[in-house]
């Protein structure tokens, strides 16, 4: 140990300068600190790059981890297997035999209301009133038809009735009863083909039916 080395320093510091003595750590320790900082930076970049690659190859969006997407896929698979929506089982829609339909003709062509009502009866619907449309709709329905019912019927009876007439527009009015109206419009030609309509009704009224879950 040099005579200029202060006692107890163990050779870690040395006297430098020719005017005022000062002490500084050896260069070796500085190199070790720099190497440690560089290693930490490299590891951080590698970790970030790995996360980005996971997002690219799994189609993930920002803020969603691979584990989160896996759990979401399992939830969707469970929903599809049980036929339940995530919150609750979807309420089943009424079958045609539980729906009373009033059929009105808003066109100049005669006999359409009666003929259409008979066909709906054959398809299982209950038939209520049959006749000409009220003045507010007479010769004013330009499409194939207009479906009217209470606000509650929009997501129930009117959805089932809509399977019978492609292009018909459902609309809620102020009624409180459960019956619904089919008002035949100028563009009406015929009801939807029965085989197609029956298939649509079966799909709608099946209890607990939900759309297939997307494959993850």
TrEMBL record:
| Alphabetized InterPro entries for the sequence | LytR/CpsA/Psr_C (IPR027381)
Indicate the segments forming the LytR/CpsA/Psr regulator C-terminal domain, all copies.
98-188
Protein name as catalogued: LytR C-terminal domain-containing protein
Q: Which organism is it from?
A: Streptomyces eurythermus
